[in-house]
Write a structure and sequence with these properties.
With 275 residues, this protein is an alpha/beta fold. 44% of the residues lie in helices and 11% in strands. The N terminus is likely disordered. The structure holds adenosine monophosphate and magnesium ion. The site of adenosine monophosphate has 10 residues, from α6.
């Protein structure tokens, strides 16, 4: 094992500092951290093993809740990230909610109504595949509600997430950053490969025309809602293996920081020998 091999990456540089203006054009989606793919994959495997242990501890400890928010454009790699990073965890303590176009019932309520009921319970990790952020992304880009309404949502979201944090939830928000060319390649692959066609939505062709508007909406989301306690990370995501490595490492770091432990026994086990 070389020195570099065991060294962990600095993920904090990917965190969006509150009060800064993010320019996605200045962040390279093709970054590889100076690693080669084989090394990256090996490292991810180790981190995943640690993640499995930590998730088990989170479940047993039962005091903390963890919410992971995944946002990206179509073909940005949200599903792939969930599959790759949470591959080996105990399904008893991890769930995924995918937020689609709201139903009539959901639209009849405020936009956080459908979200709040899926926030994690104690001991659990909840992954949001899309989230309440769609209500300042697709909604903003396509004027689904008037600007005066979506503008106020950044403030609501900050307050909502702060409440979750105050009540014991760790929030990790991951924006998967891909280039326009990479998206094109992935969408073409979905058309060409019969096994991937089910993922292709003809509406995605139309969406591509709004690339710049989406980049603006993502930048505003990052500027407005990355807080000290519920930070956004911009993940360079053109290379799947690098994205998986970074996300695994962030997950492991956040779980390590919780200082997880087994609950105090309610029974005196001292010297007990079963016969
Ligand atoms: P997918 O994740 O590929 O299954 O696509 C889900 C679709 O639902 C995407 O086009 C999202 O933009 C859309 N969607 C999710 N949340 C909302 C929302 N709050 N308002 C409108 N569209 C949404
Ligand atoms: Mg899709």
């Amino acid at each position: 094992m070389t020195e570099e091999y065991t060294m962990e990456m600095d993920t904090d540089r990917l965190r969006v500092r509150p009060g800064t203006k993010v320019r996605l054009d200045d962040i390279d989606p093709g970054e590889d951290g100076g690693l080669d793919k084989a090394t990256g994959k090996e490292r991810t495997k180790e981190l995943r093993a640690e993640l499995e242990t930590l998730q088990e501890m989170l479940y047993v400890d039962g005091r903390h809740k963890m919410l992971v928010v995944l946002q990206a454009l179509d073909a940005g790699g949200k599903d792939g990230t969930v599959r790759a990073v949470f591959d080996g965890v105990n399904p008893q303590g991890v769930s995924v909610t995918s937020f689609k176009k709201p139903s009539t019932e959901e639209l009849a309520h405020d936009y956080l109504w459908r979200v709040h009921q899926h926030t994690p319970r104690a001991g659990h990790i909840e992954i949001f595949n899309r989230s309440h952020y769609e209500d300042v992304l697709v909604v903003r880009v396509h004027d689904l509600v008037p600007e005066a309404r979506w503008r106020k949502r950044y403030g609501h979201i900050r307050a909502f997430e702060q409440m979750l944090v105050d009540e014991g939830t760790t929030i990790i928000k991951l924006f998967l950053h891909i280039s326009k060319d990479e998206q094109l390649e992935r969408q073409q692959e979905r058309i060409d490969d019969p096994a991937k066609r089910w993922k292709f939505d003809p509406a995605d062709i139309e969406q591509r025309k709004y690339w710049d508007e989406y980049q603006d909406a993502f930048e505003a989301m990052l500027d407005e809602t990355s807080t000290e306690e519920a930070p956004w990370y911009v993940i360079p995501a053109n290379r799947n293996w690098f994205r998986n490595l970074v996300v695994s490492q962030i997950m492991v770091e956040k779980l390590r920081a919780l200082d997880l432990r087994y609950p105090e026994p309610e029974f005196d086990f001292e010297g007990l020998v079963l016969e």
